[in-house]
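ok so I'm stuck.
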Amino acid sequence: MAKDVIIACDFASADETVKFLDRLTRIRDEVVKCDDITVIPRPFVKIGMELFYAEGPQIIKTLKDRGHKVFLDLKLHDIPNTVKKTMKVLGEYGVDMVNLHAAGGIDMMTAAKEGLMLGAARLAEKPKLIAVTQLTSTDEETMHRELLIDRPLDEVVKQYALNAKEAGLDGVVCSAFEAAAIHEACGAGFLTVTPGIRLTKDGSDDQKRVMTPKEAKEAGSDYIVVGRPITAADKPNEAYSACLEAFK
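replied:
not stuck anymore, here's the structure
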């Protein structure tokens, strides 16, 4: 079931990010009424490495204070103890979703979940922890030639997803092409968060496995992550609205 569009705020600074988000008209299909005041929820946003490393934890507070849900996309990958301690810190920030690399293995992912829950113990709603299977910039030829993984791409992604489920994670980051197979293997409630989304088939940039929002919905994606097709659009409001309409 389609859940939401996440805007990838891959900007260099907090100022640039806030200015962009201020440009977005709050076009949503959900309206919450509270004390006779109509509140339209703000977009779910993704903070990546560039922005987080430039601004630190303050950018999370800034966006949360503005009413945004936050997906912190740092893709942790280290020994289990280091990842556990780091996830504890990230859990204290109040993010809604965070990720790591499934290639770190089940022990690392299990430790990460433990650390994240420790950090988020005070929160009523716990953050979702998801694992990156293979980057959407990686195709099968690259995986075979450079990473020396000789199994088919879809088989590798499926196994990484099964490992993530065994470790107690909530879902995976994957291409929309793999969403249906992951749901079949891991269950309908296991989240598929899919980048590599373009409004049209044109302009895939450095992504090699891309789909449109409508195609991703039909393929079974739970969340789509959309960056440049919205953030670099001449009319970002219209691009965001088009994504919502096609996906939700």
